[in-house]
Amino acid sequence: MGFPDAGPPAPAVFRDALRAGEQAPSVHNTRPWVFSGGDGSITVSGDVDRGLHVADPGARELVISCGAALYNIRVALRAAGTVPEVTELPDPDRPALLAEVTAAGTAEPSDAELSLYAAIDERRTHRGPFESSLDDTRILADLRAAAAAESAGLRLITDDLLIRSLAGLVNASEYLHRRELDHAEELHHWVRVPGSRLPGGVAADDIPAEESAGEPLFAGRDFGADVQGRREASGTATGTVAILETPADTRSDRLAAGQALERVLLAATANGASAAFHTQPLEEPRLRSFIAEHFCEGAHPQMIMRVGYA
């Protein structure tokens, strides 16, 4: 029995989709997107004023963040029985305009789509070690399939020497960034301390205290040694290490990477898992090229992540 065609979606359907888009993950929770529309159509644009001009001068991570928001919009519309039609990069003369979403009819949502939609409210970015890794082969296969469905790949790094080598690249770039004043100032700007009115950013109490975490295999971001209110880290597991990759590295590929990333994260959330991100070496062109050649067989790495149970 098909989903009944009830005419154009109600404005509330698009308003809910906009709300879902705002809940997407973004680099340092900068939320670098601008949505417009909301009654029959939605446009997703990048907000360069909220970009990371030191860490992300080419706006790669900005586009990925907007892609994650776009995926949430798509899922919210599907959960409401609306089939979204997405036009990516619709106007070459408006490079900030990344996508336009309209309704292309109605269809009953699948159980999988409803599960992904429900996971939007539950998804959280994890920082620090995990209680245990995600080693369920069925779930890992589902995560890889989620990435593939969005024209990306999720490469699992399982060899211990490769894991330690990748961690070394993360750690080296992290500690170099800590010594660069412009990197440190930009990162510290996006810390939301208690009482802050910053619309976005990383809450101080979500940043684990490094001294309580010991010597993690993958170094976390140093948001500033003077940040007050850091939480005590718990857990000892590194988590399952993966690289999200795309066959090419155009703006369209980066937009696809963001949609794939969020689809993977929602699938993980639906299975009780969460993810931690390590973009530090991907912000260094030479290290990103090195990872592409030696870890990704020539594919383009868009995100380094650890997945586990927090």
UniProtKB/TrEMBL annotation:
Superkingdom, natural source: Bacteria
Alphabetical list of InterPro entries matching this protein: Nitroreductase-like, Nitroreductase/BluB
Protein name, please? Acg family FMN-binding oxidoreductase
**PANTHER family the UniProt entry points to:** NAD(P)H NITROREDUCTASE RV3131-RELATED, NADPH NITROREDUCTASE
Which spans of this chain does the record mark as coiled coil?
none
Write down the species: Nocardiopsis sediminis
Residue spans crossing the bilayer: none
